[in-house]
Amino acid sequence: MAILVVGSVALDSVKTPFGDRKEALGGSATFFSYSASFFHPVNLVGVVGEDFPEEHIGLLNGKGIDTAGLKAIPGGKTFRWEGYYDYDLNEAHTLSTCLNVFDVFQPELPDSYRDSEYVFLANIDPELQIHVLDQVRAPKLKVCDTMNFWIEGKRDKLIELLGKVDIITLNDAEARQLTGEPNLVKAARKIISWGPEHVVIKKGEHGALLFSGDGVFSAPALPIEEIYDPTGAGDTFAGGFVGYLAREGTLDEATLRRAMIYGSVMASFNVEDFSLDRMKRLGAGEIEERFGRFIELVKFD
Ligand code: AMP
């Protein structure tokens, strides 16, 4: 059974110190789906406007991503995000967020999606995330993501969502903002006390941490020379993480740790170009080769 993902499908305008792109394909569900599809089939739920280029749908379908749940609203405008990064590529600065068609979207899952076992609630309005989750009959793994925009605007709904999921992935600044805890260990423990069994805290070029009960696993980030655009790194990480878990079909600690490395592998590719451009050129062999480089990176006697 395919992974179910709901989230934004967007046209992003992004500027980094290394270039810029206007209205390029983006969105949390898009980056997640494309990344996860290297590991497992994906069913995408989202919404776009009349202005969404048909070729983008073709790109997703070409990777085997099912877009039957991607609704196109006649006369509507696609979600748009505009942002920039300074030399500290860990911090995205939002210039504008135009929800457009997401303002009125209430997804009804196709019946065939309701039996999904692996569900990823990508970054979008927590009300929508809950609405989708409530329609899935007996999911085996429920993972969500979020960002500062929703922590500021819909904190109560987000905390409600945390009571319903198994894992949350978020970045370090978001974990601090959500909990009011400057220390990441304390922040993770607080989030776990609200519901999830595991918390994944992404730290950009400093790697990612997996908190489970009293334990913690630290995944490094690959030191990369050519970084052009970090947009979507968090979602491609989640795509590798959940995609690998769905492919393996088990959720033991060792599998979760390997999933953290596959997530880091996918994120490390995504930052090497704008939009989904690097992932579009990615071969399955490259994924395994880079997984090996991660093992080398942390090996010592
Ligand atoms: P990240 O993986 O955190 O870099 O996610 C980047 C993606 O998030 C971009 O492609 C944006 O289109 C999308 N995005 C930005 N703001 C929001 C928002 N408020 N809700 C949903 N998606 C967003």
Report on the structure:
With 301 residues, the protein is α/β, with parallel strands linked by helices. The chain has one domain: UDP-N-acetylmuramoyl-L-alanine:D-glutamate ligase (3-Layer(aba) Sandwich). Helices cover 37% and strands 25% of the residues. It contains eleven helices and 13 strands. The chain has helices at residues 28-36, 54-62, 126-133, 148-153, 155-162, 172-179, 184-193, 233-248, 253-270, 277-280, 284-298; strands at 3-6, 10-16, 19-26, 42-49, 66-73, 79-84, 93-98, 118-121, 141-145, 167-171, 198-202, 208-212, 215-219. The strands form two sheets. Strands 5-4-1-8-9-10-11-12-13 form a nine-stranded mixed β-sheet, with helices on both faces. The chain has a four-stranded mixed β-sheet with strand order 3-2-6-7. Strand 8, helix 3 (126-133) and strand 9 (141-145) form a beta-alpha-beta unit. Helix 1 (28-36) packs across helix 8 (233-248), helix 6 packs across helix 7 and helix 8 (233-248) runs antiparallel to helix 9. The N and C termini lie far apart (41 Å). Bound molecules: adenosine monophosphate. Adenosine monophosphate binds at residues 8, 10, 12, 26-28, 31, 81, 97, 123-124, 147, 149, 231-235.
